[in-house]
Structures are given as structure tokens and as C-alpha cells.
Amino acid sequence: MPHAKRPRAFALLTLLGVIFAQVPLLMAQESPTLTAIVSRLERKNRQRLEALRAFEGTRNYRLEYQGPFGNREAAMTVSVSYKSPDDKRFSIVAQSGSKFLFDHVLKGLLDGETEAATDENQKKTALTTDNYDFSLLGTDQAPTGRQYVIAVTPKTDYKYLYRGKIWIDASDYAVTRIEAEPSKSPSFWVKRSQVRHKYEKVEDFWLPEENRTESWIRLGGHALLSIDYENYKITDRLPLAPLDGAAGARNASLGIEWNEQTALLLTGFQFK
């Protein structure tokens, strides 16, 4: 190599060495440990729960059943208002279809959600290491950015817990998607239920966007429950605290969004 080129070659090798030396640090920064992810998720959930004081919204429910007892369907539109910490009110503004499904399933969803919102149930269903085991499966890319994919396994068979996978936004540390089944069957009549739930970001909060729950009935038949959430309006809120500033906040699971999801997992296609 000519003498004049040696300094340039040496400089290039030095630069490459510096770059490659940074790779482990960059990977560590971009890929926190499972413990760090879950810890941040818990703290951010508490912050969002404390900051979200009140909101309003609309839900459209639709239930379709096919089986040996014939094909039936029912629908209802519900207006929802929430005030912290657990005052959630429902107003049914429209209904159609099977009165049996409406009285024994759809209305039961609202009752179950009210029960799930109590402080005692929030503690028992919190998405924390007290109630769940976590396992990091990998990462995924969504339109909103990178997400962590985590398997969750309940430590008990409490009726509001679930097993499956969750997707956590890598920036907000909020659950954006759930694919799961209840830790125990919601009813003797239900052989199995599968829930797919998605969230959308409304201001600083991740609230339900859509739910699809499939249930297979023990005596034969299949039910599909669809819920679409819309017209959100945040009516009262506090500023979100920094990530490490949530000490003393009330224990929560997914903030207001999990209160709604637990009721769906509980009820499934449960006849009363």
C-alpha cells in the first residue's frame, strides 16, 4: 500500500471500529429486557389511569349465533360515560334483533363490566407480575411503530384473567392489541372462547377500538360478538407524569381500557 494511503486506511479502520463498538450499546438501548418492559408498562398504565378523569363514547354491539337452535342475531348501540375512579354509566340508545340474545347476553356484558370496574377486581386483574407470568416472544412492526410481543400466563384461574399474547407499543408502553382466551370458561355452556381486541390512541390514552369474540357452544353452535368503539371525547384529564413520577398511583391493569376487556372475557356467550 502506498505510504500516502496508509493514514486514510487507518482512519477508516478506526472509524469502523468505533461504529462496531457502539452496536451492543445501541441494541441494548433499542431492546430493553423483559423485566424493564413489564416495569415500564405497569408504571405507564398507572399514570394513564390517574390522568384520565372522564370521557364519553359510543359502542356498537352485534351478536350472531349459528347452531342447532337456529340462527339468531341481535344488536345494540350504547352511550358510555366514565368518571374516575370507577363511575361508568351506560345508556342503551338502540336495539334490534333477538330479544333473547339481547336480554341474556348483550345486557349481561354491561353488568359484567360494571362488576369488573370495582377496585378489588382491578387489583386482581392488573397486568402485573403479581397476577401474570410474562415471556418475550419478539417484536413486531405496526403503522404506529415498533411493538413488543409478549406471552401472558395467569397465575390463577380467576374469572377475569386471560392467557394469550399482548402487543406493547415501544414508545408509550401501552397495550395496543390482545389475542387471548379466558383463564377459565365463562360458563358451563361455553367450550372455548377466543378474543381479539385492538386499541387506538386518543390524545395520550389508548382506548378500545374494536373487539371480536368467538365462542364455541357445548351443545353445538358458534357465536361471534363484535364491538366497535367510536366518538370518543376526553372531557377531563390531568397532565401525564414523567415515567418515574407515578409513585403512589392507584394500582391498575390497562387503565380504563382493561376494565372493559375483562367483562368481554368473562361473559363470552354466557346465558343468564
| Backbone CA Rg | 23 Å
Major sheet summary line: 10 strands, antiparallel
- CATH structural class: Mainly Beta
Domain count: the total is: 1
H and E string = HHEEEHHEEEEEEEH
Average predicted confidence as pLDDT: 81
Strand portion: 35-45%
Widest beta sheet: strand line-up = 3-2-1-10-9-8-7-6-5-4
Helix percentage range: 25-40%
Give me the number of helical elements.
Answer: 5
Q: Characterize the overall form.
A: globular
Main attributes of the structure:
alpha+beta, outer membrane lipoprotein receptor (LolB), chain A, 10-stranded antiparallel beta sheet, 5 helices, 10 strands, disordered C terminus
What can you tell me about this protein's structure?
There is one protein chain. With 272 residues, the chain is an alpha+beta fold. It contains 5 helices and 10 strands; from the N terminus they run ααβββααβββββββα. It has helices at 5-30, 34-51, 99-116, 119-125, 256-267; strands spanning 52-67, 70-83, 87-97, 132-142, 145-154, 162-169, 175-182, 190-202, 205-217, 222-237. A 10-stranded antiparallel β-sheet has the order 3-2-1-10-9-8-7-6-5-4, with helices on one face.
